[in-house]
Structures are given as structure tokens and as C-alpha cells.
């Protein structure tokens, strides 16, 4: 019997430790984002700071990406 819903609790439970680890990475991303945003306000012409801020935003989204990947790997 196959599940038609998108609910995959096993994938969620298996991915939880990795999501918690990526949550710590996202906290680092928040700190980098705040510093990068302040530097962008000081010198908006710096392209490298803008790239740093974009990278920090991806770090902040890391827990969501990890959980989506784990739940997509588990078959019903």
C-alpha cells in the first residue's frame, strides 16, 4: 500500500539530527548576514559583501533544505 500524501514522518525523524546541526549553521549565517548587511550599508559598492550576504541567506535556509531532502529520500 503506497502513501499518496506528502507526509513522510520517517524521513522527518531521520533528518531531525541533521536539521538541528544545520540550525546551528543557520545561526552562524544570521551573524554573517548582520555583519554583511552593516558593511553593505557602509560601502554599497563592495560586490564581495553582497555575495557574502547572499551566502549567509543560504546558510539561514539550510535547515529547510535538509528536511526537504530527507523527506524526499524516504519512500512510503
Give an overview in words.
This protein is mainly alpha-helical and 76 residues long. The chain contains three helices and no strands. Helix 1 runs antiparallel to helix 3. The radius of gyration is 17 Å and the shape is elongated. The N and C termini lie close together (8 Å).
Characteristics of this structure?
76 residues; mainly alpha; 0% strand; elongated
In short:
This protein has 76 residues and is mainly alpha-helical. It has three helices and no strands. It has a domain at 21-73.
The largest β sheet comes out as: none
From the alpha carbons, calculate the radius of gyration and give it in angstroms: 17 Å
Question: Strand percentage, roughly?
Answer: under 5%
Order of helices and strands: HHH
Number of strands: 0
Give the N-terminus to C-terminus distance in angstroms. Answer: 8 Å
Give the proportion of residues in helices. Answer: over 70%
* Helix run count: 3
Q: Structural class of the secondary elements?
A: mainly alpha
Q: What would the average pLDDT be, to the nearest integer?
A: 75
Q: Give the overall shape, derived from the CA principal axes.
A: elongated
Unreliable residue stretches: none
Give the helix/strand layout.
Layout: H1 9-42, H2 47-60, H3 62-73
Helix pairs in contact: 1-2, 1-3
Amino acid at each position: 500500500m503506497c502513501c499518496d500524501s506528502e507526509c513522510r514522518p520517517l524521513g522527518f525523524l531521520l533528518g531531525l539530527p541533521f536539521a538541528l546541526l544545520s540550525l546551528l549553521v543557520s545561526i552562524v549565517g544570521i551573524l554573517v548576514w548582520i555583519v554583511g548587511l552593516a558593511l553593505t550599508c557602509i560601502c554599497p559598492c563592495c560586490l564581495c559583501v553582497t555575495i557574502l550576504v547572499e551566502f549567509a541567506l543560504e546558510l539561514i535556509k539550510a535547515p529547510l533544505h535538509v528536511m526537504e531532502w530527507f523527506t524526499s529520500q524516504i519512500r512510503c
